[in-house]
Amino acid sequence: MTTYIGTATSRVDGRAKVTGAAKYAGEFNTAGLAHASVVTSTIAKGRIARIDASQALGVEGVIDVLTHRNRPPMPGDDGAYKDDVAPEGSPFRPLYDERIWFSGQPIALVVAEEPEIARFAASLVRVEYDKETPLTDMFRHRDAAVALAAPANPAENPFAPPKSRGTAEQAFAAAEVRHRGEYYVPIEHHNPMELYASTVILEQHGKLTIYDKTQGVQNVQRYVCSVLGMEPDEVRVMSPFVGGAFGSGLRPQYNVMLAALTARALKRSVRLVLTRQQMYVLGYRPAMIQQIELGANAGGTLDVITHEAITVTSQYEDFYRQVTGWSGLIYKRAHAK
User: Fold this and answer.
1) Beta bridge partners of 231
2) Which among 43, 92, 109, 173 is least buried, having the fewest CB atoms inside 10 angstroms?
3) Any idea what DSSP says for residue 68?
4) What is the spatial distance between Cα 319 and Cα 34, in angstroms, rounded to a whole number?
5) Closest Cα to residue 292, out of 326, 321, 267, 246?
6) b/e 168-182 (16+ beta carbons within 10 angstroms → b)
7) What is the DSSP letter of 165?
8) What pLDDT, in 10s, does the model give residues 136-176?
9) C-alpha span between 41 and 31 (Å, rounded)
10) Which of 51, 198, 39 is nearest to 109 (CA)?
11) Pairing between strand 208-212 and 235-238?
């Protein structure tokens, strides 16, 4: 029997990563590559009243500016945008219509011959909004947050809390030592070193080779095929060096869809690299209010625990992070809820 415990083992890609030879998704090159830059919403909720891209289009080297008004056709049903790990609800559709769901939402895409030109031209796109008041204060809108939360479904959610056992309320009331507390956990953003990027290379006969920052190449491939109406053998997704994602790369991000959509529309290869600031809207551990009750005997043995949470969710998908299940899994006690 061979054991590797205590034995130094070299990573297969270790030398390439520490010497800079390992390429990020935004570093794969090809002839005739166009570069895209995203224009993002400056409001958190509302609608786009007007977009003026005339100044951007007037910049030398700009190829096109795509918005919800002139983008290529996109599917109109939610099913086309569902990836392998999508929650219930209506998946986000970048550049689909005038609706603004969140601050930093992509609302236009500037494509140019050079990345610097695309970035500069993106700053010239003028947008007017019909603003609405967003719901952002968890404590002020606690009742609304409860109404928006999706109920756990143990049949579908592997992290659903275990079933209640015992008589938690009575056990807590009778406990010799009791603690009741409410705790606020703020948003935790995940921003890995590698910027999210997609390099979409247009191959012969309209096929696509996509270098994408992702933890799931098959998920991305199926997603692109579904949204663009392509066959599986027409789309190849590559992620040679996976790392630095740890969850934020589980789902296809909007950059891969926009880059692939643009490459097909322009009939040329396209690269889209998000900025560090744009990375903050790709997903995060949501804020939550946790209410915990602990009951123990005089010797300190935990006898009962109740754990409830109110968590932030999306305005269009019913995502929630299951946190109450862990207290039921890792602590031994006779009563739980």
Assistant:
1) none
2) 173
3) T
4) 35
5) 326
6) beebbeebeeeeeee
7) B
8) 888 877 765 455 554 444 333 434 455 667 788 888 888 89
9) 32
10) 39
11) parallel
